[in-house]
Structures are given as structure tokens and as C-alpha cells.
Amino acid sequence: MRRWLVERLKDEVVVTIMKNKLDGTYSFINLTKEHICPCKFESVDDALKDIDEKINSGEVIRYFELR
Q: Where are the domains of the chain?
């Protein structure tokens, strides 16, 4: 399972991106807060692009994949 550390203004969380078996879309799973994000994406790349957009808007400071 791929995981990312996302550094936000108020905290840091570890997330993964999982495929929804019902409709084939992808969503973030916040492993730190045990929360499933209602956002849906067509691919993992689209989900990561969403984080990039949040960096550009100032909501996220940075993120990187945990190995």
C-alpha cells in the first residue's frame, strides 16, 4: 500500500489512496484520523494532482511518499 505524509498548516497526516469497488473511483483514506475523504478521482494521478492544487492554494505545505 502506497502512503504519503501530507503536511498541512495545522497538522500532518498520513494518507493512502484506495479504489472504490462500487464505482471504480479513487479516494483518499486519512490513516492518521481514520477518515475516508468523500472526494472521488478517476485515478491515483488525479488524486495527487488535487494535492498539488492544494499546495498552490496554500492549504497544503508539502507532501511526499513514505517508503
A: 3-66
